[in-house]
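Archive maintenance. Older records in this collection stored only the sequence; we are now back-filling the structure field for every entry so that each record is complete. The fields below show one back-filled record exactly as it appears after the update. Entries are processed alphabetically, and Twin-arginine translocation pathway signal protein is next in the queue.

ARCHIVE ENTRY
Title: Twin-arginine translocation pathway signal protein
Organism field: Novosphingobium organovorum
Length field: 207
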Amino acid sequence: MAGFTKAGSGLAAMVLAVLALAGPVSGSALAQEPAHSTPARPLVPADFRVPTRVETAHFTIVPLGPKLARIDYEAYMASVEHLQKTFSRSTSWPHAGITDADTIADMTSEAERFKARTSFAYSVLTPDGKRERGCIYVQPSRVPGYDAVVRLWVTKAEYDAGFDAQLYAFVQGWIAQKWPFANVAYPGRAIDWARWDALSGKEGPEN
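Back-filled structure field:
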């Protein structure tokens, strides 16, 4: 089902109300580390100023939120198979059945977690802000020895153009220089998936 159609907006609102209780299966949800049994605590100190905009000559990084729902949707839906293999390792995201309500609910949840300082999801945009090149997620870790987990994805077109390696290199420097973490995990990159799955108690890719 295509997202962001003009028709059926009333139905989308009704679905959104239901999803507010159940929560959508989304890229952001799949990016989250398995939940703790205790309430989420802030990931960063109270006096840390969380970055809300990073500009380079080739991209701009801003927090994910409802205002970016359309271009976020367009980015991941153009790269379904690529992201299932390289990011979610699952056919549950992205998929053709994602609705307007799913997308808005996901973006709203990300904005709420950002505000609560429990995790931070960012969109990587072109300098003009008209297209999303990928996303970055900064999250708590349940694995001892790591005080944060960072995951990122880029669209298939950007991956083919070599942007994945470029963004990963930038993010490593950005996190090391601008964030208050001593040891950060990069699953599927600095730590291979098999090792990370074993450390985190996860059984591996889902289908």
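Update note: The longest strand covers residues 132-139. The longest helix spans residues 100-116.
Entry marked complete.
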